[in-house]
Amino acid sequence: MNEVDRHVPSDLDVHLVLDNLQTHTIQKWLLRHRRVRFHFTAHPSVGELAADITAWVETWNENPHPVDAIAP
């Protein structure tokens, strides 16, 4: 996380998608890095998570654009 924080320009927010495993270990870090937002998923299996990621990629690729183009 520190590596990501160092390399993303300071005027940008950082959004990360994670599972909810051991979130208590990052709470203090998040308090020191207020621009970082975590978005948690809950999938009952690795297979379902992989299917959701694949579906997202396929949908994204139908109309691809640079990630910074979707920032507010």
Task: Output the keywords.
single chain, 72 residues, alpha+beta, two-stranded parallel ribbon, 40% helix, flat
Structural class: alpha+beta
- Could you give a short account of the major beta sheet? 2 strands, parallel
Query: Which range best describes the helical content: under 10%, 10-25%, 25-40%, 40-55%, 55-70% or over 70%?
Result: 40-55%
Strand content: 15-25%
Give the mean pLDDT. Answer: 80
Q: Helix-strand pattern, N to C?
A: HEHEH
Number of helical elements:
3
Q: Provide the domain count.
A: 1
Strand count: 2
The largest sheet has its strands arranged as 1-2
> Any idea what the radius of gyration is?
15 Å
- Could you tell me how far the N terminus lies from the C terminus, measured between alpha carbons in angstroms? 23 Å
The dominant shape is: flat
Regions with little confidence, pLDDT below 50 for 5+ residues? none
Provide a concise account of the structure shown.
The protein is of the alpha+beta class. It is 40% helix and 17% strand.
Written description of the protein model:
This protein has 72 residues and is α+β, with helices and mostly antiparallel strands. The protein has one domain. It is 40% helix and 17% strand. The chain contains three helices and two strands, in the order αβαβα. It has helices spanning 2-7, 27-32, 46-62; strands at 14-19, 36-41. The chain has a two-stranded parallel sheet. The radius of gyration is 15 Å and the shape is flat. The model has no long low-confidence stretch (mean pLDDT 80).
